[in-house]
């Protein structure tokens, strides 16, 4: 009798061979992992393993921004470090560029107006005139300071005597022995600081030598920038890729044009401030009115901060020489000068073409002062002006199809063409006269 194998159950019940056993065994393949999925790519199937964990999107974005910011900060620090090492070269070059923005338009105008004057001769005449004016101003300031120093010393002695008398008879009630002790302490401090003073004097001599060398480098660079600045600019452009060379050329021309306008307007505003303040100080009777006026002139090249520093010096001199009344009169005078500059001179001379937001003035000055001292504070605002005009040109769509030869870098109106193309500005002196002529 033959035993037949059991036939499969027609109802689909699994037979003994289909018994899965006590449970699934360990995964034998990566596709056996829970969560794994198979991706069908044509004739082949790719098994992607399941992710045990995923980085949150916010953390991924934050980490990506963090390392990029750190990379930019490291690059900026490296650039500032190299600039600090080369400050003895960079500062004269930047000063020469600023001076060239003031003198180059005059040299080119002179050679164009009189055809028989060569450009080299026009450059020499303009440079000699500029050096003569600056030398005369410094000579006048030093001479006035030396001539007025005895009067100031007398006033200072009288003021100190009055303060000493007030300390004796006032609420403090100090006696002669206490004054003698204070004087002995001051003498002992000076004697103990002789070595430090000698070292400082030697350092001052070295500083004077470095200053003279930097002045020569500034003058040498200025001569070539005024005479042939176009050739220097074309050499700089040769390092720019050819595809972006025209766009960079236009941006550089507009940036220099904005620097020309800024330098002209700043010199005129500073001269007006100095003359107004000098006449007011002379009428009040403050000694050293001419040196203080010159100090106000140079302080005007550092917006906001320069006016504060020079104003404090003028008030202190007035307080020492004439007392509290003169000091209050000088404060009122300086407030009037600042209002004249802010509401009349700057709108007329600067206009809207190179006007910067107050934060764009104060913050760069503070950063420049912290990083590079007084030279950094002096050069901060011109640098911001140049960068602002250059960036605006790079993002302006109309400059993409413009011929660089049509942009005049010596004309301040080329710095911000969007305001000059619309018509004459009422906030500039030239635009004001043009508007009146057009109306008549």
TrEMBL record:
Keywords: Cell membrane, Membrane, Transmembrane, Transmembrane helix, Transport. Residues 1-38, 405-428 are annotated as: Disordered. Its main location: membrane. The chain crosses the membrane at residues 85-104, 125-146, 215-236, 256-284, 290-320, 327-349, 361-387. It is a multi-pass membrane protein. Residues 17-27 have a biased composition (Pro residues). It is found in: Cell membrane. It comes from the Bacteria. The keyword Transport applies. Pfam families: AI-2E_transport. Coiled coil: none annotated. Residues 413-423 have a biased composition (Basic and acidic residues). InterPro entries: AI-2E-like. The keyword Membrane applies. Belongs to the autoinducer-2 exporter (AI-2E) (TC 2.A.86) family. PANTHER family: PERMEASE PERM-RELATED, TRANSMEMBRANE PROTEIN. This is AI-2E family transporter. It comes from Actinomycetospora rhizophila.
């Amino acid at each position: 009798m033959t035993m037949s194998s059991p036939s499969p159950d027609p109802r689909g019940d699994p037979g003994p061979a289909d018994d899965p056993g006590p449970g699934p065994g360990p995964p034998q393949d990566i596709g056996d992992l829970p969560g794994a999925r198979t991706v069908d790519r044509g004739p082949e199937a790719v098994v992607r393993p399941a992710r045990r964990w995923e980085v949150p999107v916010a953390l991924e974005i934050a980490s990506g921004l963090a390392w990029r910011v750190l990379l930019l900060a490291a690059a900026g620090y490296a650039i500032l470090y190299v600039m600090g090492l080369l400050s003895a070269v960079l500062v004269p070059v930047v000063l020469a560029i600023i001076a060239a923005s003031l003198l180059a338009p005059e040299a080119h105008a002179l050679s164009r107006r009189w055809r028989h004057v060569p450009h080299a001769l026009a450059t020499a005449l303009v440079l000699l005139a500029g050096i003569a004016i600056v030398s005369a101003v410094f000579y006048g300031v030093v001479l006035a300071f030396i001539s007025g120093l005895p009067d100031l010393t007398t006033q200072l002695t009288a003021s100190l005597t009055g303060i000493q008398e007030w300390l004796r008879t006032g609420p403090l009630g100090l006696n002669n022995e206490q004054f003698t002790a204070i004087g002995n302490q001051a003498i002992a401090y000076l004697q103990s600081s002789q070595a430090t003073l000698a070292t400082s004097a030697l350092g001052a001599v070295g500083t004077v030598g470095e200053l003279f060398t930097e002045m020569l480098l500034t003058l040498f660079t200025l001569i070539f920038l005024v005479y042939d600045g176009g050739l220097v600019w074309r050499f700089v452009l040769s390092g720019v890729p050819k595809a972006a060379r025209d766009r960079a050329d236009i941006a550089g021309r507009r940036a220099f044009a904005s620097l020309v306008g800024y330098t002209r307007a700043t010199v005129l505003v500073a001269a007006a401030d100095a003359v107004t303040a000098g006449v007011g100080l002379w009428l009040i009777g403050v000694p050293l009115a001419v040196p203080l006026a010159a100090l106000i002139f140079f302080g005007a090249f550092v917006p906001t901060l320069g006016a504060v520093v020079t104003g404090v010096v003028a008030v202190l001199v007035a307080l020492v020489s004439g007392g509290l009344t003169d000091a209050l009169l000088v404060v009122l005078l300086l407030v009037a000068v600042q209002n004249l500059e802010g509401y009349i001179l700057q709108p007329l001379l600067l206009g809207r073409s190179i006007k910067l937001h107050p934060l764009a003035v104060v913050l760069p000055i503070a950063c420049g002062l912290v990083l590079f001292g007084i030279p950094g504070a002096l050069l901060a605002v011109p640098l911001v002006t140049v960068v602002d005009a250059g960036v605006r040109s790079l993002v302006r769509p109309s400059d993409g199809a413009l011929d660089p030869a049509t942009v005049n870098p010596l004309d301040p109106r080329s710095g911000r063409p969007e305001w000059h193309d619309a018509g004459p500005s009422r906030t500039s002196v030239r635009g004001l006269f043009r508007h009146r002529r057009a109306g008549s």
